[in-house]
Amino acid sequence: MSHLKISLILTLIITVSCNEPASVSNIQQISYDSNGTINCIRINGSNSSDPKQVIWFYPDGSIKTINKYTNSSKEQDIGFYQSGNINYINCLDTSKLNGHAFIFYGDGALSNHRFWKNNNIAGYSTNYYQDNIGTLKNICFYDDSGKLQSWREAGTHGFGISVSPVVDTSKK
Questions:
Q1: Do 35 and 101 have their domain in common?
Q2: How far apart are CA 7 and CA 56, in angstroms?
Q3: What distance, in Å, lies between the first and last C-alpha atoms of the chain?
Q4: Which residue has the higher pLDDT, 133 or 125?
């Protein structure tokens, strides 16, 4: 791996940390695959036994995921396609799945957005067409237990053309 690429990786590591800037002295571990390519970099936070960030790489050296931790709970997770486009962004407390999750198409366009509360999709979720302009496909509405309550499809004449309540047939 070239010195320029390693410098760019270290710059990214230092830049990505929002709460505590990382430095080269905070690097806990660098793992390599059998070909000598960097596979993973672990960066310490304030507690040296608990990694604050973990960066995984594809075999070609491009970044696969960046995980940010608070204590032992994953707080932010960014995944990349091998092309470099973002695959997903999870801003979740993974101990109970609380927060937002975004998934993207391979070309970088937003595919869907979910809000999680206590391990359930809650409130709403949105889905988008793969059309590079972010055209809304539908919105689903959930109660706090994660049960789908209704959804709205986007129509050709604007949003909310049809509203479909969810009917629970399991009680019959």
A1: no
A2: 16
A3: 63
A4: 125
